[in-house]
Write a structure and sequence with these properties.
seven-stranded mixed sheet; Sugar O-acetyltransferase; 178 residues; alpha/beta; 20% helix
Length: 178
């Protein structure tokens, strides 16, 4: 699955891991954010790596959690969705706005039989350091975003973005250097 190979989400082991992650997200959502020790401990149990000074506001949804890696100083605003069938790395001091979706799952396009029977594969998402994503940004599978990138609200990032740019739109396009 994490290597980009075909997998079936209904495989018993994969389904059990997904259910455990959804349950963990639910429990995290029921925890008073003012109880920082409990909230932080649950977050660290759910995700693969959590750096120092990471803030995750309520409403986080993940596929498995274990493939998500947050560097120091990462901020995830409310209702972040990270579908992590492949690794998702978010760099130091990156800020993610409300309702952002980071997606790694893909479905076979040309093999109709595989798609109809629920087969999937994935591609990783990597976000550099000191980035800022506005609300409701979607990052598609296989995308790498460089350092010091700002992505405007509502943008859909379908291709890699280089360092030091502002990108906006659907699909997101670089509109200027930063």
């Amino acid at each position: 699955m994490t290597a980009g190979e075909l997998y079936h989400a209904d495989d018993p082991a994969i389904a059990a891991a997904g259910l455990a992650a959804r349950s963990a997200c639910w429990r995290l959502g029921q925890t008073d954010p003012a109880d920082e020790a409990s909230y932080d401990a649950q977050l660290r149990d759910l995700l693969g790596t959590v750096g120092e000074d990471v803030i995750v506001w309520p409403g986080l949804r993940v596929d498995y959690g274990t493939n998500i890696h947050l560097a120091d100083g990462v901020f995830l605003n409310v209702d972040a969705t990270i579908l992590d069938v492949c690794p998702v790395h978010i760099g130091k001091d990156t800020r993610i706005g409300p309702g952002v979706q980071l997606l790694t799952p893909l479905h076979p396009l040309t093999d109709h039989a595989l798609r109809a029977t629920g087969w999937e594969y994935g591609a990783p998402v990597t976000i550099g350091e000191n980035c800022w994503f506005g609300g409701n940004v979607t990052v598609c599978p296989g995308v790498t975003v460089g350092d010091n990138v700002v992505v405007g609200a509502g943008s859909v990032v379908t291709r890699d973005l280089p360092d030091n740019v502002l990108a906006v739109g659907t699909p997101a396009r670089v509109v200027r250097q930063l």
